[in-house]
Structure formats: structure tokens, C-alpha cells
Amino acid sequence: xxxxxxxxxxxxxxxxxxxxxxxxxxxxxxxxxxxxxxxxxxxxxxxxxxxxxxxxxxxxxxxxxxxxxxxxxxxxxxxxxxxxxxxxxxxxxxxxxxxxxxxxxxxxxxxxxxxxxxxxxxxxxxxxxxxxxxxxxxxxxxxxxxxxxxxxxxxxxxxxxxxxxxxxxxxxxxxxxxxxxxxxxxxxxxxxxxxxxxxxxxxxxxxxxxxxxxxxxxxxxxxxxxxxxxxxxxxxxxxxxxxxxxxxxxxxxxxxxxxxxxxxxxxxxxxxxxxxxxxxxxxxxxxxxxxxxxxxxxxxxxxxxxxxxxxxxxxxxxxxxxxxxxxxxxxxxxxxxxxxxxxxxxxxxxxxxxxxxxxxxxxxxxxxxxxxxxxxxxxxxxxxxxxxxxxxxxxxxxxxxxxxxxxxxxxxxxxxxxxxxxxxxxxxxxxxxxxxxxxxxxxxxxxxxxxxxxxxxxxxxxxxxxxxxxxxxxxxxxxxxxxxxxxxxxxxxxxxxxxxxxxxxxxxxxxxxxxxxxxxxxxxxxxxxxxxxxxxxxxxxxxxxxxxxxxx
Length: 552
Fold this sequence. Notes:
The protein has helices at residues 2-14, 21-47, 53-62, 67-73, 82-95, 98-123, 129-136, 139-145, 151-170, 174-188, 194-211, 215-230, 236-245, 255-266, 273-296, 302-329, 339-352, 358-382, 390-395, 414-420, 441-448, 455-466, 497-518; strands spanning 405-409, 427-429, 470-475, 523-524, 540-545. The protein has two domains: 47-231 and 253-382, no CATH class; 390-545. The longest helix has 28 residues, at 302-329. Strand 1 (405-409), helix 20 and strand 2 (427-429) form a beta-alpha-beta unit. Helix 11 runs antiparallel to helix 16. The N and C termini lie far apart (112 Å). A five-stranded mixed beta sheet has the order 2-1-3-5-4. It is mainly α.
């Protein structure tokens, strides 16, 4: 009896203390934020509709019959091999339709939300409250993470790599090390710019191990990063060719431009208004609180102090590394480029705040509650937008005949128009491109160097209108022109995106002038009632009718 009593005393002393009201409130609010995040993903799944041009481009690269064929097309896209292999496998399940691919995006997006909770469990820390409201409720993260691209897979892999590398340093068991390597390799094999984030994770982990006076574990952290880096060696030729093909897109990114786009990624995206700006302020407040918390060095277990230092170092390395990488690459960026960085920031800030005092935890709770209430309605509205209305624009041309003609502008909208248009009228982009199944910037470069790239297009427009038929304009509105602009000479060699934009604008003006000179005033072609699409692909349709018998 006495022995049993002693056992009960020992068990009672080792049992965890009952959760405080603060811990219970944190958990309840985190569960509420999780429910809202799931609802936002489902909202997008229901409303996103057809694929937009970048998603179609990714699907086209994933569709050839063999992996060798996919490998040859990688230079036409922005990702390593892994996203295309997964999409190919998904399509083999007869889920390659628009609706089936939206299911793929939903699974990826919800997996990232689950990863936040899995990280919390592996770290043995409080619920990921701020990570949920800042990252998982961000409509930029939901929309573009769930799109049929590699960005959602990239953010998922980075979240897992962040946790597993720290786990491998704490308990370097073979299975943990293997999983950490797998997550790091998956990160760089999903999104190229994840390589700088894996570098930050490896360097941060190595520094923490050295601080803990364990050089072998520092070498382990660097070895995990090296394994990921080595897995990119086969892509050196692909990346070199891709850069050559995409010279026409390089504009020379500036720190100001990158900062503006990053602010939109943090929440201030087009259409979010005040709640979006509040979300950005929430990120800033969380980062400031995390930095102050680490600087105050509150009393905490050694494991939690190591975790907080790990989060600080990873964040301090990742932010400038990403900036340098994007400045070096030079491509015009968009908010979705930052999804993996946002995921890593969310994980790092949670790690740093795990040593916060009760006062900071109260502030964290209040900030999360305010953001949850204020951001949710705007995020819900934002995620009700379609990904595109090009399917409706293409359907509006059902009455176009074989003797009519369709012009698509700008040229990059040709990818989505090519997928959804099934009418009888022939069509072309400005300038005409021989292949519109994917974004062929190499063909655009050839047109920039051609003697008269849109001469045949102008002739086709003139003859169509002269015969009394219609020319349809699909895409952005045709510009108003008083008279045709002067024609530009062919370019002697590779050019950047700024010059490409000048030439494309000139060609567009020439086409608009031809329509004005040889046809009646353009009339808008109505599209069926529909939810507005997101701002990156909103197409409209106009029709210009020719005047038969007129001699020019």
C-alpha cells in the first residue's frame, strides 16, 4: 500500500500542471483561427473557377508523356522538377480537370495549416496563434498557395524543414536526420528561391549548435544544407537557358520595388484596403515583440532559449538573403514569390515568442484577436474572386465566324485564351507567336529582332475589315490613338524587360490605329454575369466591324 502511495505521489509530481486561463484562451483562439483558415481555403476552392495563365503554363509543362519531355520544358517555367511530377501523378488519377486541380490546391493549402500545428507539437510549444492569423489567414497566402503552381508546395516544405532541422540538432537520430534532409531537398526541388531559405535554416542551426558547444551538430546542420544544394546541380544548365530565354522579362529590380511587392505579400494586396495594412502592421508588431523578447533574455528552459535563438538567426539570415537573391535575378516579382519566406517568418516568430513573459503573451493574444476579427471579412471577400474570366471571354466569341479575326492583347494572355477558346475564328497575339501553349519568351525575343513582326497581323486585320467582317479584341482595353505611331527598328541583340515593354506598346498602338482607321467604332461584347476575377487576369472583349467596299 505504501509503495502504491509513493508511486501516486511521483506520478502526481511529474504530471503537467493544469492549463492556466491564458493558455486555455490561447488555445481556443488558435482553434478559432484554424477554423477560419479552413473556411477561407474552402471559399477559394468554391469560387476560384478556371485556371489562369500561370497555372495553365505549369500544367502544360507537367503534361508531356515522359519525364524527359518535362525536363526539356523546365526552362519554360519557374520551378524545379518536383511540382510537375506531383501534378503529373495527380492528373494520372483522372483529376487533371480544372475542378480536380482545384482539389490539389486545396489539399496543399490545408497541409500548410496542418504543418503549423505539427510544428507546434514537435517543438512542444504553445499553439501557433500569430502564425495562424498572420500567415494562414492572409488571402495572398491562401490564393497563391492553393494555386496550381509550386509556391504552396514550397511553403509547406520550408515549414517542415525549419522544424526538422532543429529536431535533428536536438536529437540526431537517423530517422530525424533523414527526414530533415528530405524536407530540405524537397524545398529546393519545389521552388528555386527556397534555396536561400534552406541556407538560412542550415546556417542558423549551425550557429545555435556552436553556441551550445556542439561542433559536430553544427557540421550536421551545414551538411543538411549542402545535400539540398547538391540536389540543384543538375539544374545549372536549365537555369542558364531559362535566364537566356527570359532576358526580355528582366527589368532590373530595385530595393524599393521589392519592398513594395513584399508589403503586398504581407497583406496589403490589391483590394484589401485597411485590413490589409493592419495585417502588415501585425507582422511588424509581432517581429518587434519577438526581438524584444529575445533581447530581454527571460528565464526559460535551455531548449526554449535555443529555439528562440534559432528562430532569430534564421530570420536574420533569410530576409537579406532573399533580397539579394531577387536583386541578382532581376525578374519582376509578384506577391506569390514571398510565400515560402512568409511561412519561414511565421515559424521563426513563433519560435522566438515561446520565451515571452505573461505580459507579452497577453499582448500576443490581443493582437491575434484583433487581427482575426478585422481581417477575416476582407479576406473572405477577397477570396471570392475568380482566378480568371478568360473562359467567359472565350465563350463570348461563340458567334465569331471563320472569316472574322481575334486579336489577344497583351501577348501573355494567349496562354489562357488558348486553353478556353474553341471558336471558329482564327486568332493571334500581339506580336504573333507560333506557340501559345506556354509562355514562350524566346519566341517573343525573336519577334523583337524581326524586321516587321506585326506586318502580317496588320494586313490580316485590314483585309478582314475590308471584307465587312469583324475583328475582336480580347484582353486589356485597346488604347486610344490619334494616328499610327512610327515603327521601331528590329533590335540587334538581347534586351531587358523595359525595352520589350516599349516595343509591345508600340505594336499595340499600331494595331489599335489600324482598327480605328479601317473599321467602325469598337463595341463592347458583354460577358455573362460572373464574380469579378482577381486583378492579374481580367479580360474584356470588343468587336470592330469593317466597312465593305471601302478602298484604302
